[in-house]
Amino acid sequence: MYGMKHKSELSFPNTHKLLKSVLIGLVVCLGLLCLYYGWSFGPGSRRSDEEASGSDGSDPIFGGFVLHRDFDDLHEDQEHNSEVPKSLPVCDLQFSELIPCIDRNLIYQLRLKPNLTLMEHYERHCPPPERRYNCLIPPPPGYKIPIRWPESRDEVWKANIPHTHLAQEKSDQNWMVVNGDKINFPGGGTHFHDGADKYIVALSRMLKFPADKFNNELDRLLRPGGYFVYTSPEAYAQDPENRRIWNAMSDLLKRMCWKVAAKKEQSVVWAKPLTNSCYLKRDPQTQPPLCDSDDDPDASWNVSMKACISRYSAKVHKEKGSRVAPWPQRLTTAPPRLEEIVVSPEEFQEDTGIWRFRVIEYWKQMKSVIQKNSIRNVMDMNSNLGGFAAALNGKDVWVMNVAPVRVSSRLKIIYDRGLIGTVHDWCEAFSTYPRTYDLLHAWAVFSEINERGCGAEDLLIEMDRILRPDGFVIIRDKPAVINYIRKFLTALKWDGWLSEVEPRVDALSSSEERVLIARKKLWDEGLTAM
């Protein structure tokens, strides 16, 4: 009996311990499973290729197609091709204003440690491949087709940009006014009491420009003789901190050889020198120093800024300026810096003519569906020499010219033509607000990223993010690329209107091309998010 009792007494505590251990183990396993599936299948999350390789190598959100396949292998009809989805998931509404590479939440999630003093938290921090958003960014509730230009300069739909706090916080400065279902922008603020247009006229008068208009827009960016305008609020005129900043800036710019071209009240205009003469006369110990001779002033993508002054080339120094033609002649005149990218004036003129013809053909294709002033914000995703933008000069639009990283040196030609642009790697998200552009033009962009091993699917989703509802995409590329992209149009809701043609072969055609033009639908309010 003693032996039995002893065994029984010992068995109860062991049973409790065993049961407790099992329960703890189950809780831990359940937690790990929730963490895994919540991370892998949550809105916008993607498993890495390594994690997916244990199954069929498919993406959980795109519904089974294999990433980074060659376009030539994907010619099967969509109904028989399980790799191409008939629909794509919609992100949660909390992501309606997502800019993937400028996402403060991502910084915290990845446990990055940016230098706040240097404002590194405002720099681009793109999500790694396994954290990219694989869903369509939804518009905010009540979103409407944007008001057309030029009325859109002064008013927008409140539902499209649901941020009215500035109207309350700065109500005395007239920045913005909520007016029913619209937000109005009367102009004003601490700088522009009478509106920005009158402020610009005042600056023009300070510089004695004819007809009160600028006829030419920090050191590395400015042309020889270019202007830098600094304005501080009148209310801060006697503020000690404001005066300290002013004194420090004046001292710095004097050491950089900039000269005051005009000054009135709280506005000052500095002019950059035309030659290297002043730089060469400085004391060798003067700060900031001249940049090393092997520094490339054109390098701008993922390059740390240096506190040094880029000297002019021997040609610019000798000619005392960039010698670009005045506007609007500079738009079609071969700029002097063409020789720096090994392009002849004849090639430049041929490029200009080809794009003039191409744009005419594009507009013929879209003539039946384009309404007056329905296109204002345009992006050329592979700007080359800026011919596409130049060909749009007669239309009331503006163009963001994007020079891919591999040809970033061509951005200087964009600016020499009087256009605006930036450098970008289309394997990453573009730094702009969702639903920004009315028209996206992609010439050979998909072929280029495919050669680098980047996914066309990622780029399509990014293009959808920055394209407005009712907006157009013009994709000009190889037939295999167009055939592949066409399969995604319904899933992307880009089938509001379609046109596809085989264009005329010209000197810019590296091979046979197709032109696909598609229109994005305004989403149904009933669409459910992930």
Individual helix count: 15
Second rung of CATH, namely the architecture of the domain at 329-520: 3-Layer(aba) Sandwich
CATH class of the domain at 329-520: Alpha Beta
Helix percent band = 25-40%
Explain what you see.
Keywords: Glycoprotein, Membrane, Methyltransferase, Signal-anchor, Transferase, Transmembrane, Transmembrane helix. Its main location: membrane. Pfam families: Methyltransf_29. It is a single-pass membrane protein; Single-pass type II membrane protein. This is Methyltransferase. The chain is α/β, with parallel strands linked by helices. Among the domains are: 207-319, no CATH class; 329-520, Vaccinia Virus protein VP39 (Rossmann fold, 3-Layer(aba) Sandwich), CATH 3.40.50.150. Helices cover 29% and strands 13% of the residues. It has 15 helices and 13 strands. The chain has helices at 2-41, 49-52, 104-109, 165-169, 196-206, 240-255, 277-281, 314-319, 345-366, 387-391, 411-416, 445-451, 456-466, 479-486, 489-492, and strands at 155-157, 177-179, 182-184, 227-231, 259-264, 267-271, 377-380, 398-404, 420-424, 437-443, 467-477, 497-501, 514-519. The strands form three sheets. Strands 9-8-7-10-11-13-12 form a seven-stranded mixed beta sheet. A three-stranded antiparallel beta sheet has the order 1-3-2, with no helix packed on it. A three-stranded antiparallel beta sheet has the order 4-6-5, with no helix packed on it. Strand 5 and strand 6 (267-271) form a beta hairpin. The longest helix is centred in the first third of the chain and has 40 residues, at 2-41. Residues 1-15, 32-69 and 73-80 have low confidence and may be disordered.
